[in-house]
Amino acid sequence: MSAARKLSCAVVDDDAMTLKIMEALVKKTDSLHLIGSFQDPVAAANALQQSPVDLLFLDVEMPDMSGLELIKTLNPKPQIIIISSKKEYALDAFDYEVTDYLLKPVASYARFLQAVQRVQLKYEKSNVAPSSTKPEHIILKVDSLLVKFYLKDINWIEAFGDYVRVKTADKLHTVYATLKSVEDTLPQGEFLRVHRSYIVRVDKIVNIDQSNLQVENKIIPVSQSYRKKLLESITTL
Question: Parallel, antiparallel, or unpaired for β 79-84 and 55-58?
């Protein structure tokens, strides 16, 4: 991203006072261009689908749709800076790959600017070398801990109620996340969704038949809708 380019942004918070504070902070910042501010998260979700932004300042607790629920509706997903009066949402926010977390009241312009600079740095890094390095690990929440999982050690991932289970060579881990949120963090080509409930590491596949595949000693179903992409992704097992 060119240093001269302003980041388009929006603010979503059901509290009118917080909206005014955030609008004032944005307007003080030359690198930001405010597209809109919303008290209604549903209206915000609809507007952002039509007019995506680079950066979203987002409250968590709102009527009709929480901030974390709103994130799930966004495609493409902007960078997110959470604004909340409660520290306890920080860990949940991590699952959604938010860039920063500001505690209300956002009274410090220096802290606000620091968060914006983190967003700018992420954009600059992604544009300098968008595909030069692949991630070696992902971090997921297990119980109350954030745990590092090396991608090469993951065999498959499966939906498990409100959780997912991540199978490594030595253990089956229960992780607080959705299968979709985990899928979004995985590098394309190395992992593949083969069923609404399963993601597999491609190089761990032992064999495939008409409706299943095998990883280790695990037989995993393959949905017809995913079968074509699976076969296109594999040349030699």
Answer: parallel
